[in-house]
Amino acid sequence: MSNAWDDAAQALRDSCLYVHPDAEAELEDAGIPFTDAEQADALEQLRDASTPIWVAVLPAAAGANPSLAAFPRAVGSDGTYIAVLPNLSVNADSTLLDGVQPTVVSASRISNDLPEFIENAISGVEGLAETQTDGQGGGTGPRGGGGGILPLAILLAAGGGGFLLYRRNKLNRERAELEQVRGVLDEDITAYGERLSALDLDVREDSKVPIEARREYGRALDLYENAKLYADRAEKPADLKPVTHALEEGRWLLGCVGARMSGEPLPERRMPCFFDPSHGPSVEDVQWAPQGGVPRGVPACAADAYRVKQGLDPESRLVTTADGERRPYWDAGPAYGAWAAGYYGAVLPAMMVGTMLGTTMAAPLAYGAGAGDAAGGGDFGGGFEGGGGDFGGGFEGGGDFGGGFDF
């Protein structure tokens, strides 16, 4: 099978994923099939990756003549090239594009879930690439070349047992953080539903309600259903952003409905009250500083704006921290990042400077992903177990990357 590498190299010019027919049959015989649907899903993930990644799944016989350097030569682009072969341990010293050295990892921890492995590999490589971009102050967009792209060639040996520790640790942390935020999210959804119910009879039974109000109410009702659906499907804290975004828009629409029914001016579309988004849309910006921090302008409801101007404490939203304490959400840890981002969008980091949440959001992987994933000592560094150690610690070559990933 001496031409398997060349076949893969040519195929990778047109696709981010190549699965050799013999490898597909070998996986099937081993009881770990890589189905067409799973391949299509993996291909979509590779195409959407924020840094160029190519994956080739080759048969065991390809190990007789490993030639990973053929991949970037054929594709003509720097990036991360991953070759997956059954039970292989080889050495490689050829040079790839622009002096990039191939890295060989004799790993045997793909277990019986190749799609899961590819998903984790993408996440890990993206985290490393983001760390590199942050450190060099530059980068390119997805699938481009040049700075900010992780220049690796990874040769992985598939087979053996054991589930990916990276995936297990990451999922366990995400589940714990999601459960931490669930109570706050349920409170928000319940309060929104109660306000919908309070307006329901008036809107449905009063024939004098303007048609615009009926339409806005219908849209607000749709957003309520969307929020519940997104919340039910959420598997990690990052999935909560569309939930709170829907609630934010819905609250403004309900304010419009109320204004139309009472003959008052329509409310301005403003962000929710910073101190507690359940207070509804803000009415003005006030200067406020967290304990020990510098003042900054934040949106506030009328009641909290008055309290701040009087030198009093606003009615801040208290949530549960990972340690079980009750603290304002901006000092409760990274789990609440996506929850808050859905309410406040792109301006949230500026408002959070000097808070615990602001510190988290300044890390490479924000909104609950955990800063450790993108640097030495994170889950990626401690999870992909290779021949000489973990995926982070087992890469050995010349130099140091990301404060703990040796190449």
Briefly characterize the structure.
The protein is an alpha/beta fold.
Low-confidence stretches: 88-111, 135-151, 155-168, 362-407
Strand line-up across the major sheet: 1-2-3-5-4
Counted up, domains total: 2
- The secondary-structure class comes to alpha/beta
Keywords: Membrane, Transmembrane, Transmembrane helix
What is the element layout, followed by pairings?
Elements: H1 4-11, E1 17-19, H2 21-29, H3 36-48, E2 53-57, H4 70-75, E3 80-86, E4 102-105, H5 114-136, E5 152-158, H6 165-205, H7 211-233, H8 241-262, E6 284-288, E7 296-300, H9 302-309, E8 318-320, E9 326-328, H10 337-344, H11 348-351, H12 356-361, E10 400-401, E11 405-406
Parallel strand pairs: 1-2, 2-3, 3-5, 4-5
Antiparallel strand pairs: 6-7, 8-9, 10-11
Helix pairs in contact: 3-5, 6-7, 6-8, 7-8, 8-10
Keywords: Membrane, Transmembrane, Transmembrane helix
Transmembrane segments: 148-166
Describe what you observe in this structure.
- 42% of the residues lie in helices and 11% in strands.
- It folds into 2 domains: 107 residues, no CATH class; 191 residues, no CATH class.
- It has 12 helices and 11 strands.
- The protein has a 5-stranded parallel sheet, with helices on both faces. Strands 6-7 form a two-stranded antiparallel sheet.
- A hairpin with a 7-residue loop joins β6 and β7.
- The chain has 407 residues and is α/β, with parallel strands linked by helices.
- The protein is elongated and about 75 Å long.
